[in-house]
Amino acid sequence: MPDFRFDEMARLLDEINRFGAGLRGPSADDGWAPQVDIHEREDALVLVLDLPGVKKEDIELQVDGSGITLEGRRPRAMQAKDLRLERPVGRFRRSFRIDVPIEPSRTQASYRDGVLEITVPKAQISGPTRVKVDVT
User: Fold this and answer.
1) What is the Rg, in whole angstroms, of the alpha carbon atoms belonging to the chain?
2) Which of the 8 DSSP states describes residue 83?
3) In the predicted model, what is the mean pLDDT of residues 80-105?
């Protein structure tokens, strides 16, 4: 069995990535998905997404009773010969299904330093109600 070293494998993968970047860089049609953290507070859901290099006006957010959809675009940083590209460019889209009742109309979003924070309030649901029904 041959002697296998992880540092040699890492070097080989690095070479393959460098070679591949010269042949084809990310295209605007490839799409990508920004990373997200989702937190649940007692009164709301909070989504935090990393979107460095994306302009606020290039972000579209839609919220309805069953989910959240975020779309946008990150342009190429430079018009130059690419030696290595690891940061995705082009269109992105993320959708999240929400399994708790929410109030879409009260959703708030803020964008600062490449971080988008979306706060979606939970719907106020009162406890079970008792109704007397006359049977005829």
Assistant:
1) 23
2) S
3) 89
Asked if residue 33 lies in contact with residue 12, where contact means CB atoms within 8 angstroms, the answer is: no
Strand partners, 46: 39, 119
Local confidence band at 25 (pLDDT 50, 70, 90 cut-offs): very low
Tokens of 77: 């940083």
**Total structural domains in the chain?**
1
pLDDT of 65 reads: 84
Cα(81)–Cα(22) distance, integer angstroms? 8
Query: Which residue shows structure tokens 């706060």?
Result: 119
CATH code, domain with 61: 2.60.40.790
Inside any domain, residue 64 = yes
- Whether 21 is covered by a domain: the verdict is no
Q: What is the pTM of this model?
A: 0.69
Q: How far is CA 5 from CA 11, 13, 14, 16, in A?
A: 10, 13, 15, 17
pLDDT for the residue numbered 76: 84
